[in-house]
Amino acid sequence: MKWLGIVAGVVLAGIVGAAVLLPRLIDWQSYRPEIAAIAEEAIGFPVVIDGNIQAELFPTPQLTAGGIRVLDRAGADDLATVRWAEARFKFSDLLRGTVTLTSLALVEPVVSLSGDLLGHLRAAPVKGDDGRSEGASLGGPQRREAQQIEIRNGTFTMARSDPDAAAFLIERVSGTVENAAVGSRMTVSLSGRVQGRDLDLEMRVAPPQQAASAPIAFTLTDKANASLLRVVGEWSMKDGKVGLAGGFSVNGGDMASIAALTGMSLPPKIAASGGDFRVDGNFALDGAASTLQVTDLSANTDALSITGEASAQWSGRPKLDFALRAGRLDLDGFVSPGGDAEGTGAAPTGADGPANASPDPSATPSASPFASPSASPGAPDLMAWIGTLPADVSLDLSVAGARFRDTIVRRITVRGTVDRGTVTLEELSAQLPGGTDLSIAGFGDMTGPEPLLEGNATLRADDLRRLLNWAGLPIPNVSADRLRRFSMVSGISLRPRRLDIIDAAVELDGVTASAAAAVALRRRPGLGLRVSIDHINLDAYRSVYAPPDSEGAAPGADNPPGQTGDAAEAVDGAGTVEGPSLWSRFDASLDLRIGRAVALEVPFNDVVGNLVLKDGVVTINEITFRDAAGVSGQFGGQLSVVGDADSTFLAFEGQSADMGQVVALLEGPDFVAGILRSIGPTALNISYRPASDDAPLVFQANGDDGALSFGAALSRGEAGEPALDILSGDMKAYGLELSGLAGRLTFPAEAYQLEKLSGTLNGGTLNLSGSLRRRADGLQQLLITGALDGLEVDRHLADLDGPIGLKGSISIRGQGESTGSDWRAMAALNSGWFDMEGALAIDVGPSRSSIVTVRQVSDVREALRERFSEPASIEGALVLENGALIARDLALRGNTGGVLELSGRLGLTDLNLSAELVLRKAENAPQFARLLAEGPAKAPNLRLEGAVPSKN
Predict the structure, then answer these.
(1) Which pLDDT value is given to residue 443?
(2) Would you kindly state where each structural domain of the chain is located, as residue ranges?
(3) By the 8 A CB rule, do 125 and 41 touch?
(4) What is the pLDDT of residues 325-369, one digit of tens each?
(5) Closest by alpha carbon to 804, among 949, 697, 641, 917?
(6) Which residues, 6 or more positions from 122, have their beta carbon under 8 angstroms from its beta carbon?
């Protein structure tokens, strides 16, 4: 028995030795092609083994290969590499000539794919002509299903289509696949690091029994958070086609983790939002019909709540259909902060106007609302991307309410289709703030070199003011009952970098206009706009303010009837800015043409202008007009719309045919307007700089032939109220010569205040002060006090000798009041030949020809001292009209009772005197005898009527 044990031990040792030594005696390297061919048939991609191959039979049959490479379909590039692979086989099956793979271990596999993942998965296995894998044969039937597949420290990377974007990365992958054989209940358990997050994958699949379905469960778990993805359902196999139905849920924890996991580029506000990201639904996959149905879809985030359904089919050309309903949508979360000034070229312009304009070629657009999120140079825009879609798409989306710019946008509807790159936009509509309805429809081809969408747009607003404020484009100081009803119907033409608004019919507050626009779609948009208006009353848009001391604002343009004070302010609450101002975030150019515009109750005809907006500053290249209160000319300068007064400057250059109309336009004294109406054409120059501390507004007027020269500047009074400093003034009118005029006019809330006015009038020194206010009955009331010393009269009448010769000068002291067009003053006149106190009335009404009327002259202390032996008095009226002195009911009374009553006219033309006098009565006439006797000699046209009693 002992020898039997020895023999058995020797045999066993021989078998073991043979099992250990025999595989080492075989040249396994020569079997590389056959082993690679077996792997190719299993996975469908070319396989190359560069490393050594080793085999062992004891204790378990095992084949080990190193340096394994999996190539792409062309056999050019590596899709995957495996540092080392270990395959174990079932020993008993090897004895029967069958290869049964019990386990497969992949050590440090590295998979590297491009963005075309579906293309890789569709790759067909590499087969020979006989349908089997090419290469050497190991002989006999082979079973290649592995009961267990083990992965040790694997890596998966997939490059993105954008070369500048980081690749999608899965690393440190380790785990097992149990029962990988067909027909077995398979369990997959893997762990790894995906985009920097540690994840666990668990999957259990039961094989279907004949025609029945079998359960399947799939769970992807984030070690730091809750489960990310869970799928539970049933699957079946029929005629080699897979069917799958069940439910799924996605819970991303927070949006930042989803962005990091998927590698998506999300707006900062969305990426930083807290709360759960969750998607739930049911699905049904029919492999035979090549369709996928998703029902009861529900997606919820802090910024989004969507329900609906979707479907896909991929027999022939793939097609995707979406029917979605959003109950909550926060668009503010999807809008990134405004970009920098990149691409800030001029707004689109062109020879034919903005409608046919092209963006400035020097401007390099960097991003637009239609660009990819990366906005990198050369990144494909949305329209071009639609043209390259490998599937047709239909979308029916409705949103009950979406938050945008901190306001709810309601009833958003998007319906359209994409068919082989051709887009049909059936409806894009929304209800914006201000009772605004927006509707767009169009059709376009996205497959050409320049994608184009053409259609029509309609915009109707009940409150344009609120819409503009919400859009960040406030227009302040406009009457509360204006900027209300607005409508626009136009054609549109949309390209990736440009939007054209064509043949727009616009109506605002009953005013109609035609317009066209071109919008450059870039990080900093540019707008070219052309507007033509037949008629507009700009006075209706002026705010009307009540005096501060009133009991509440009077009804006016800012306060509709029935509303005053705080109530009116509440109505104008729409004027508050509901979002950040965007005036400085785009550039614009406006070509404006108005047939007739009314401003300050003055018609402006043929208004033509060009304005440019850049960085919140409007540059007025030129605005010309004619026949505005007799004024024609042009404006230029710049105006800030973002409150930067330092950059505001306006200038006007033109000519006035009637300076009286200009004074009336400025609501100046009526009698001044009447005097200035006699001055001919006057050149006007006005400049305005609100940031200037010295003189923000400077006015200069120069009449023809020196009839008028006037300069003034706007400043501030002692109390900070606006003031007009008269710098210089010279005027000739109605025989008056005014020169060296200087003074200050202030504008407190209640009235104009003339602090001082000095100058020279007909050689006399003029000093005046006073005030001008508007009374409750609408009439102007002028109160004035002053003096005129040394008024020269002999320069005009020096050649007249005899009974009416005047020499010397006159001084006037007094005060007066004007209401409407009547002027009344109490004055003391002192001259070298008579002194007078009385009432002076000046009438300069536009329909009246009289200029100066002297009434009730009394108390003549030294009258005609050279002609009469005793003092006399004068009663009646003397009227200066059109250069003639007219006596009306004039009575000269001597102290002894003598009376001379006469009426008539004295004409003075070029220092020649003509007279037509009617003597009605003479009593105690000796004192008048010499006057009457010498009158014809000195006044040859003197005509006397009636009897002249005489005691001598």
Answers:
(1) 92
(2) 30-194, 196-336, 338-598, 600-761, 790-938
(3) yes
(4) 988 777 776 654 444 434 444 444 443 443 334 333 333 333 333
(5) 917
(6) none
